[in-house]
Write a structure and sequence with these properties.
Elements: H1 2-13, H2 68-78, E1 93-97, E2 100-103, E3 108-110, H3 114-117, H4 126-138, H5 149-160, H6 175-190, E4 195-198, H7 209-212, E5 227-230, H8 244-258, E6 265-269, E7 271-272, E8 278-279, H9 284-294, E9 298-302, E10 327-329
Parallel strand pairs: 4-5, 4-6, 6-9, 9-10
Antiparallel strand pairs: 1-2, 2-3, 7-8
The protein binds pyridoxal-5'-phosphate.
Pyridoxal-5'-phosphate binds at residues 1-2, 5, 174-176, 179, 202-204, 269, 273-274, 302, 304-305, 331.
């Protein structure tokens, strides 16, 4: 699922096959000049300059594993055909160090996408590695029917970053599962069935969240429950420009014409990630949260791609809209590929 998702995100954001930048040779992207620290007068035009990654004091370990060709052959034989890869000769990534990845020949790449905005502390960060190693030496598995301080400490730490009454944490296994649980809770709490999500949204690929997701590339012909996909308030390409009130009216219309007048909840990313980094019209969530709450619904913020400071300006994406949701879901970045959602 992660790979499928990555393909979609990258296609939307960069065009096909351009996830990892390698400036050493054969650059796959034209670098953006605004990243340069050199003044424009002094800068050599980028297309003439030799493209090089900055120095990095790390020597990847010699790689003695199977070659890219051997791995590809085995993948084709033993893994499902839904897995795909980039490039005619796909990269065999064998090591990661902070913001860089290394292929089987020791060539260094800048991981510009942090593994679908997931690896927020870089690859193999020494502090993360140390914490994992120390814990593994002590105790590798326990369950919630016994006590362990870590889960309570972690919940407390997360709650401390949340505004309002958002003080209770549920741990699950993925972003999809978090959204499934949020939807289940919204339905049980409200006693209503209908959920509202935005067109162009991605909320997961599990059998329930696939209904919330509103991108045809991620849909399959299965029952989806009662889900209303309202117009996404895209301030640049949307039918109503950045007029939040007109988009909010579409939510009201769906409730009035498509439901009994009551809904279970509303879910939205504050920046649509898989849909191509699409922001919401300013002030949209405030108006919609009011409408949804009046219809008995619960407001859910999906922070899987926007939480943990990744918007740059705020810790949570929903803060950019000045709202406090009833439920917040998160996964990537929190997980660092180790723990989840
Ligand atoms: C906004 C958003 N919500 C939910 C998910 C689902 O998360 P997971 O792949 O961990 O199930 C994703 C995955 O990319 C996502 O981008």
């Amino acid at each position: 699922m992660a790979m499928m998702l990555q393909r979609k995100v990258l296609r939307r954001t960069f065009g096909e096959g351009k996830a990892i930048l390698n400036f050493n040779s054969n650059p796959v992207l034209s670098p953006c000049t605004s990243f340069s620290t050199v003044t424009s007068a002094a800068a050599t035009p980028f297309h003439n300059a030799p493209r090089q990654l900055p120095p990095f004091d790390y020597q990847p370990k010699p790689y003695n594993g199977p070659s890219a060709d051997q791995i590809l052959e085995k993948r084709k034989k033993f893994l499902g055909p839904s897995l795909f890869y980039y490039y005619q000769k796909p990269l065999n990534i064998v090591e990661g160090k902070m913001q860089y990845l290394y292929d089987e020949n020791g060539r260094r790449y800048l991981d510009a996408f942090a593994g679908i905005v997931t690896v927020s502390c870089g690859h193999c960060h020494p502090e993360v590695l140390n914490a994992i190693t120390e814990q593994n030496k002590l105790l590798q598995h326990a369950t919630t029917i016994y006590l362990h301080h870590a889960i309570a400490d972690f919940a407390e730490a997360l709650a401390s970053k949340m505004p309002g009454n958002l003080k209770v944490v549920y741990f699950v296994n993925s972003g999809s599962e978090a959204n499934e649980l949020a939807m289940l809770m919204a339905r049980l709490y409200s006693g209503n069935l209908g959920m509202i999500s935005l067109r162009n949204a991605y909320h997961g690929g599990s059998s329930s969240t696939i209904g919330l997701t509103a991108l045809n590339t991620w849909k399959y012909p299965i029952p989806e429950g009662e889900i209303h996909h309202v117009i996404n308030p895209d301030p640049f390409r949307g039918v109503f420009g950045s007029d939040a009130t007109r988009y909010a009216k579409d939510v009201q219309d769906h409730i009035e014409y498509g439901t009994s007048g009551k809904v279970a909840g509303f879910i939205a990313e504050t920046i649509q990630g898989v849909g191509g980094a699409v922001e919401l019209a300013p002030g949209y969530l405030k108006q919609v949260y009011d409408i949804v709450r009046k219809a008995g619904g619960v407001c859910i913020a999906d922070e899987v791609q926007t939480g943990f400071g990744r918007t740059g300006s705020h810790y949570w994406g929903f803060e950019t809209q000045g709202v406090i949701p009833d439920i917040v879901t998160m996964a990537k970045s929190l997980e660092m590929s180790e723990v989840e959602a």
